[in-house]
């Protein structure tokens, strides 16, 4: 049977003010019927451009210069607009990354569904709605009869994405294209969506193209994989073969640098040094040659052809050329861990007596005003205040790395900001080296800020946009030690410390890549040589290869400066890689706290277990079969009674619904909030 | 556009060069669009004619040439003369000085106060925000010309009074704009990042908020110049602005209005610069906004 979709020699160019950008070059791959094909690549690889080309929905300045896109034997490039519209609705549909921006905010789902089903003229309105309700039930939306009249903002992120999938499937298309469908979701929700997509695919015999940067997600879901780099397909084939025996150096590096693959802590992460090539220029050789550790002469002059491998997949690399292979032995691994770097300092085992803790948080509670006033007195109204953090106890010992893990809305960022006095505490205490912080005025707090710094989530967005990199990097010195330093020398020293190329000093934040901006953020945090660094999602928004660089850098600096880190993240593999201890936070309460490895190996709290099981592994041989956790995070405004996790807990007992569990200490030193811990 | 591209030859240094050339690139884009070019030409014409009026004007604006009074365009008086035989062209050039004076000082002072009040309202505590907003709305609820009439009736006509009225009535518009942008910025990550470093309130406002809100201000200011010029001309037309014999476009129009049955030329000569100035600054403002505000660009 012919493949459903055949892309051949696709060339796409975007005309920009600064010259044409050749976003896709000679892209060819097949999408077999009834299979899930994953398109993997880092940002700028052109993976999304592929599906926009297939849908013929490229932005105004983009055009298909060359190539064919055969769908069921028809070339989509030749279709006129009415035929295209028909194709998009009936035969192919798209699930978007961010359902909040891809669903119409002012229309109820009922209306949006009727808008999609306008083609089915033979169906009556009630038939259409009945069909839609069945589909909503199928994707796991409870009470579809009520919820169909709601609007997108009344749905949670996960439900919205389910709705997006339901709407994409309404017309029973042959092809579903999903553009990063789980990137905006939490780990537990991601696992549910993966499961849903897989079961829908099996049931409806639908063909799916999944675009993602997440190797684990692709491994969990896909039958075949297409690896893209800078607008070219570098490797493709059956998922098992590509993951088990990656042939292209880029694929090898990509798989190696995924932190989810590494379970041992503190190892130096492999990275892919260098930047994406400028796609405005023409490149004679292999597109990856500039960053390839194995590049040789020929790579810079001649484009490699696709070489088929024995296990049914092919890659574009000169190393696979039989003649070449005879001349050079094929090396097996990419970047070996640098031997000069030692292991992460690890003093998680040593017990530190109380006064030695750098930061001590006791019974911390942070509340934000809710609706307030009269509304809160009405029955069923929201309480006057919303507790974002409740009874948080946390110790941070000098020199250690504590990972704070939770889903969005769990209050983890608030906790970080509260320690720095950016969010006022409602009650409880935070001490820094024994000094109480919660009731300090900003004027009293300022001198302490020299010793604690924060790295913010958005690498570019946390840099003041109209300041040069140089000014941004020396700003901490300006603030705290305005006299007696040489600005230029200080800026150069900091740039060297974080391996930022010196010529970037005169640039502005928007001219930096994510990784470079992150380095500036690290430099700013380190400028005053603080004792404590609170890092809020230090790897968010960074590509896998850059993630490794940032984590390695943070590790080296920790060794050099004896830093204490509080790492706030939802990304468990990353946290596992760098943390000595772990604190799991759920709905503003720390439910489990203790040694990182112990927690990963034997989670004691059911929620922790669900999180750990929720990590998609970049290994197609070990797919998870069960969904680890049901439901979604309740709103902090209406906290569940009893144990806050009971509604989603697999092990919940009647007692959990009635009585909130107290903090108890397990025999291995872990603190846990659960009536029935899974260990001990 | 083609010139812009030939400046950037394909090469490794391309990126660095492009960043340095950013300013030139934007200027080239500005002059590349017909709106921007027309705006720039008209604005330059206005500025040059006003600044160099003493050099350009063939006569003193108040010199009487009684024999040639009420003449149409002749080689002696290219825009004709008024009923006292004063050269209209010279008076138009000198009138531009009044317009420029009011526009420059009026807009600059309003911008400074607008920024100050706007940032205070946007970044400060809610009670201050509410007080300032109430104040802005009270001022904005009066039509400018009516305030002008009332003020002139009380204090007598003068150029500085016009200036004061222009400033007072323009501040709220700027302050509102700045307040909104400041409020959008105050919870962004970079402002929180600055706070976490211990940067003082003044430092945050001056070094981090101001540079980000001032851009849209300049565009608004460019588009506001004609408004200010028209207010001055309008009040002078009503006889509430500059005192005779000082020439202003408004007073030229007023004199022409009285003579409309004898000669149309003063009206034409006083009206054209007003129209051109308005067009020039509006075009310039629009073109600037197209270049500097990417949200309005033509995307997907």
CATH topology of chain B: MetI-like fold
Mean pLDDT of chain A: 84
Largest interface: A-B, 36 and 33 residues
How many independent structural domains of chain B?
Answer: 1
CATH level-4 homologous superfamily of the largest domain in chain A: P-loop containing nucleotide triphosphate hydrolases
**Rounded radius of gyration of chain B (Å):** 23 Å
Question: What's the quaternary structure here?
Answer: heterodimer
Low-confidence stretches of chain A: 329-354
Q: How do the SSEs of chain B run, as a string of H and E?
A: HHHHHHHHHHHHH
Q: Counting H and I runs of at least 4 residues, what is the number of helices of chain A? A: 23
Distance linking N and C termini of chain A? 56 Å
Largest beta-sheet details of chain B: none
CATH class term of the largest domain in chain A: Alpha Beta
Number of strands of chain B: 0
Strand order of the largest sheet of chain A: 6-7-8-3-9-10-12-11
Compact summary:
The complex is a heterodimer of chains A (680) and B (300). With 680 residues, chain A is an alpha/beta fold.
What does this structure look like?
The complex is a heterodimer of chains A (680) and B (300). Chain A is of the alpha/beta class and 680 residues long. Chain A folds into two domains: 5-106 and 151-265, 3-Layer(aba) Sandwich (Rossmann fold), CATH 3.40.50.300; 356-673, P-loop containing nucleotide triphosphate hydrolases (Rossmann fold, 3-Layer(aba) Sandwich), CATH 3.40.50. Chain A is globular and about 75 Å long. Residues 329-354 of chain A have low confidence and may be disordered. By secondary structure, chain B is mainly alpha-helical. Helix content of chain B is 73%, strand content 0%. Chain B has 13 helices and no strands. Chain B has helices at residues 2-6, 14-20, 22-32, 34-51, 53-56, 88-123, 126-140, 144-155, 159-186, 189-197, 201-237, 249-258, 265-292. In chain B, helix 3 crosses helix 4 and helix 4 (34-51) crosses helix 6. The longest helix of chain B has 37 residues, at 201-237. Chain A binds chain B through residues 17-19, 59-60, 278, 280-282, 417, 420, 422, 445-446, 449-450, 453-454, 456-458, 461-467, 475-476, 479-480, 503, 507, 511, 524, and chain B through 1, 4-5, 8, 10, 14-16, 18-19, 25, 29, 188-200, 203, 207-208, 211-212, 298-300.
């Amino acid at each position: 049977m012919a493949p459903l979709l055949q892309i051949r020699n696709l060339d796409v160019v975007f005309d920009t003010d600064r010259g044409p950008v050749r976003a896709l070059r000679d892209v060819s791959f097949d999408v077999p019927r009834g299979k899930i094909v994953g398109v993997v690549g880092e940002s700028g690889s052109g993976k999304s451009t592929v599906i926009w080309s297939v849908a013929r929905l490229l932005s105004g300045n983009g055009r298909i210069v060359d190539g064919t896109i055969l769908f069921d034997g028809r070339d989509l490039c030749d279709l006129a607009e009415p035929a295209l519209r028909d194709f998009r609705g009936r035969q192919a549909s798209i699930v978007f990354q961010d359902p909040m921006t891809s669903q119409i905010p002012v229309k109820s789902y009922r209306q949006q569904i009727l808008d999609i089903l306008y083609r089915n003229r033979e169906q009556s309105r009630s038939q259409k709605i009945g069909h839609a309700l069945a589909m909503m039930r199928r994707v796991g939306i409870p009470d579809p009869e009520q919820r169909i009249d709601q609007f997108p903002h009344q749905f949670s992120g996960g439900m919205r994405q389910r709705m997006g999938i339901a709407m994409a499937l309404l017309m029973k298309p042959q092809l579903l294209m999903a553009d990063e469908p789980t990137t905006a979701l939490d780990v537990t929700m991601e696992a549910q969506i993966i499961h849903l997509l897989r079961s829908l695919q099996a049931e409806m015999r639908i063909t799916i193209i999944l675009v993602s940067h997440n190797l684990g997600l692709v491994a969990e879901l896909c039958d075949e994989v297409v690896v893209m780099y800078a607008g070219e397909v570098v490797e493709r084939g059956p998922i098992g073969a590509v993951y088990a025996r990656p042939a292209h150096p880029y694929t090898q590096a990509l798989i190696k640098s995924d932190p989810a693959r590494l379970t041992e802590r503190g190892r130096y992460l492999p990275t892919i040094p260098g930047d994406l090539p400028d796609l405005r220029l023409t490149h004679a050789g292999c597109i990856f040659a500039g960053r390839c550790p194995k590049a040789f002469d020929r790579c810079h002059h001649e484009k490699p052809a696709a070489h088929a491998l024995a296990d049914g997949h092919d890659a574009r690399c000169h190393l696979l050329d039989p003649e070449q292979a005879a001349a050079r032995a094929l090396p097996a691994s990419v970047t070996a861990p640098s031997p000069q770097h030692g292991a992460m300092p690890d003093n998680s085992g040593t017990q530190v007596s109380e006064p030695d803790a750098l930061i001590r948080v006791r019974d911390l509670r942070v509340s934000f005003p809710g609706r307030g006033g009269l509304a809160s007195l009405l029955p069923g109204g929201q309480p006057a205040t919303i507790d974002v953090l409740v009874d948080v106890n946390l110790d941070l010992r000098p020199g250690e790395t504590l990972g704070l893990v939770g889903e969005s809305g769990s209050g983890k960022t608030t906790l970080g900001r509260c320690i720095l006095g950016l969010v006022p505490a409602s009650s409880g205490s935070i001490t820094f080296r024994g000094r109480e912080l919660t009731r300090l005025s900003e004027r009293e707090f300022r001198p302490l800020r020299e010793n604690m710094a924060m790295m913010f989530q958005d690498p570019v967005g946390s840099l003041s946009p109209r300041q040069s990199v140089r000014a941004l990097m020396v700003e901490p010195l300006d603030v705290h030690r305005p006299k007696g330093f040489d600005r230029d020398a200080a800026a150069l020293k900091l740039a060297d410390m974080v391996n930022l190329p010196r010529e970037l000093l005169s640039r502005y934040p928007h001219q930096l890549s994510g990784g470079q901006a992150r380095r500036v953020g690290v430099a700013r945090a380190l400028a005053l040589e603080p004792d404590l660094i609170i890092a809020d999602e230090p790897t968010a928004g960074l590509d896998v290869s850059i993630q490794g660089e940032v984590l390695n850098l943070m590790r080296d600096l920790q060794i050099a400066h004896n830093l204490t880190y509080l790492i706030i993240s939802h990304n468990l593999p990353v946290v596992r890689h760098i943390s000595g201890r772990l604190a799991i936070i759920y709905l503003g309460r720390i439910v489990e706290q203790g040694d990182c490895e112990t927690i990963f190996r034997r989670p004691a709290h059911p929620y922790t277990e669900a999180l750990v099981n929720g990590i998609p592994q970049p290994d197609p041989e070990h797919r998870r079969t069960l969904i680890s956790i049901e439901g979604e995070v309740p709103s902090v405004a209406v906290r569940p009674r009893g144990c806050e996790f009971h509604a989603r807990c697999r092990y919940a007992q009647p007692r959990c619904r009635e009585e909130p569990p107290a903090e108890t200490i397990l025999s291995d030193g872990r603190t846990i909030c659960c009536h029935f811990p899974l260990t001990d | 556009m083609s010139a812009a591209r030939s400046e950037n030859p394909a090469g490794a240094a391309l990126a660095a060069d492009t960043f340095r050339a950013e300013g030139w690139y934007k200027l080239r884009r500005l002059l590349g669009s017909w709106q921007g070019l027309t705006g720039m030409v008209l604005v330059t014409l206005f500025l040059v004619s006003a600044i160099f009026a003493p050099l350009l004007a063939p006569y003193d604006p108040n010199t009487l040439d009684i024999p040639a009074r009420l003449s149409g365009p002749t080689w002696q008086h290219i825009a004709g003369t008024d009923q006292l035989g004063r050269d209209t062209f010279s008076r138009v050039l000198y009138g531009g000085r009044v317009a420029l004076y009011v526009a420059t000082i009026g807009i600059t002072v309003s911008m400074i106060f607008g920024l100050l009040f706007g940032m205070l309202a946007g970044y400060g505590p809610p009670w201050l925000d509410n007080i300032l907003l109430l104040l802005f709305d009270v001022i904005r609820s009066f039509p400018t010309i009516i305030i002008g009439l009332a003020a002139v009736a009380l204090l007598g006509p003068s150029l500085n009074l016009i200036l004061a009225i222009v400033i007072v009535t323009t501040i709220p518009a700027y302050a509102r704009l700045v307040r909104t942008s400041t409020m959008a910025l105050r919870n962004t990550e970079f402002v929180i990042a600055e706070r976490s470093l211990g940067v003082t309130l003044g430092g945050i406002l001056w070094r981090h908020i101001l540079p980000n809100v001032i851009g849209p201000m300049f565009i608004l200011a460019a588009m506001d110049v004609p408004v200010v010029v028209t207010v001055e001309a309008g009040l002078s037309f009503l006889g509430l602005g500059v005192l005779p014999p000082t020439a202003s476009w408004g007073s030229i129009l007023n004199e022409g209005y009285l003579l409309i049955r004898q000669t149309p030329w003063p009206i034409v000569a006083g009206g054209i610069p007003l129209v051109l100035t308005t067009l020039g600054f509006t075009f310039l403002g629009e073109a600037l906004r197209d270049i500097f505000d990417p949200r309005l660009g033509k995307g997907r």
